[in-house]
Design a protein that fits this description.
Length: 425
């Protein structure tokens, strides 16, 4: 009997030692075939995850890595996707990344003033973006996006959109479409009671014309005012960009490339966009208007404008969360937001500060997180640090709201902050 106890004790000690050694190994950096590897975990692949990892260039004992994955209890939680594996990665950090779905993201930028053809070209050239829309006509694309019968021109908001490698371009199209809908809705809500515009679509058309008429941010409000006044008295808008856009259309009403023919007097260019020969607005937008063209007239009037995010969010998410060079972001900010040597900034920024762990818990109880929301908690901690740095640099412009309390308490803080700034009596 004593011999049996001794054997059991030895077995337990050996098992404990083995687990201890496995834990020690799991915290040691893996050997990689290169400084940075790309790991593509596919859904329902015949090859095991561990085999895929080794084939990607992670030089380790497959059986040991498989044992660690199984003992962790998270092996079945690994998410498909494309991941970057860098030197210093340990078995523990590798598994954490694969379980959280923290994929490496790429981006595509859509520029203000581009027309639909230029947007399609940029989407087609976007790195590692699956071209599911490539063979679709513009009408078929809009139908896929849930907008059957709607012309695509001007319907996509100019911005930088991030995506996981191998994502469908339809997902990016959808993001840009929804962003324009959201910004257009906000701009429409700010219209004056005597506005000559009858619908958000008309606001979008006019904003696109303003975008193409002037490249100066200072002039946009003035140009918008002139066009609004002409619409009120039923006077032709008389703007060249509409004429050129119409001259670039083919017989089916599709954009055929920038017009390069001989210039004719505007009144001689016969097309459905010629605002010298017609009163009112052309039938579609002529480009993608940016936020400035949508809100510049309201700023000129002195209206209070509300945005759910502005450059502060760019610095927090791209600079803080993703580690993008803050000097580059600052340069871009100066280029795009300087008006008359003055940097256009929100006068008042509310930062709803909530611990990343609490935010994740609330989100899990509300809905299934999207790809962005599913980023690891550490990402959102870095985002918070990004906001803090932004606030430290310009404290008079920020108010931090403690969002880790009930709704009534949060709302009370918001009201107090807004009133202190003089926006409410």
């Amino acid at each position: 009997m004593k011999l049996l106890y001794r054997l059991i004790l030895i077995a337990v000690l050996l098992a404990g030692a083995a687990v201890a050694l496995l834990l020690l190994w799991s915290n040691q950096p893996l050997t990689l075939a290169a400084d940075k590897l790309e790991l593509n975990i596919e859904k329902n692949a015949n090859q095991s995850v561990v085999q895929t990892i080794v084939a990607a260039g992670v030089q380790t004992t497959p059986a040991l890595l498989q044992l660690w994955f199984r003992l962790s209890g998270d092996a079945k939680k690994i998410k498909a996707g494309v991941y970057d594996i860098e030197r210093g990665t340990t078995p523990q950090s590798l598994l954490k990344k694969l379980v959280s779905g923290s994929q490496s993201l790429l981006s595509v930028t859509l520029v203000e003033g581009w027309n639909f053809a230029q947007v399609r070209e940029a989407m087609g050239k976007a790195e590692r973006l699956k071209p599911d829309s490539k063979l679709l006509s513009s009408a078929e694309l809009m139908e896929k996006l849930g907008k059957p019968g709607v012309k695509p021109e001007g319907r996509f908001f100019p911005d930088t959109y991030t995506y996981a490698r191998g994502s469908s371009d339809l997902a990016v199209w959808k993001m840009a479409l929804q962003a324009m809908d959201k910004n257009l809705e906000a701009a429409w809500a700010l219209r004056l009671p005597d506005s000559p515009l009858k619908s958000p679509d008309e606001a979008l058309i006019l904003a696109s014309i303003i975008e193409r008429e002037t490249g100066s941010k200072l002039d946009r409000a003035l140009v918008g005012s002139v066009f609004n006044n002409r619409l009120k008295i039923n006077m032709p808008l008389q703007t060249d960009p509409t004429v050129l856009y119409g001259a670039s259309m083919d017989s089916k009403g599709e954009y055929a490339g920038a017009y390069e023919g001989p210039w004719l007097p505007a009144k001689a260019q016969k097309n459905a966009w010629n605002t010298y020969q017609m009163t009112g607005l052309p039938r579609t937008p002529i480009a993608m208007p940016g936020k400035a063209s949508l809100i510049a007239p309201a700023l000129k009037r002195g209206d209070v404008l509300l945005c759910d995010r502005f450059t502060d969010a760019t610095f927090a998410y791209q600079g803080g969360g993703r580690g993008f060079d803050l000097n580059v972001l600052s340069t871009l900010e100066q280029w795009t937001q300087t008006q008359n040597k003055h940097l256009l900034q929100p006068q008042f920024t509310l930062w709803f500060d909530l611990p990343a762990e609490v935010a994740a818990e609330r989100l899990a109880g509300a809905r299934v997180p999207d790809k962005f929301e599913a980023q690891p908690v550490e990402f959102f901690r870095q985002v918070a640090h990004g906001y803090q740095k932004r606030m430290d640099a310009d404290p008079a412009r920020f108010v931090k709201i403690n969002a880790n309390q009930n709704r009534d308490a949060v709302w009370a803080e918001v009201l107090q902050a807004v009133r202190a700034k003089g926006y409410l009596a």
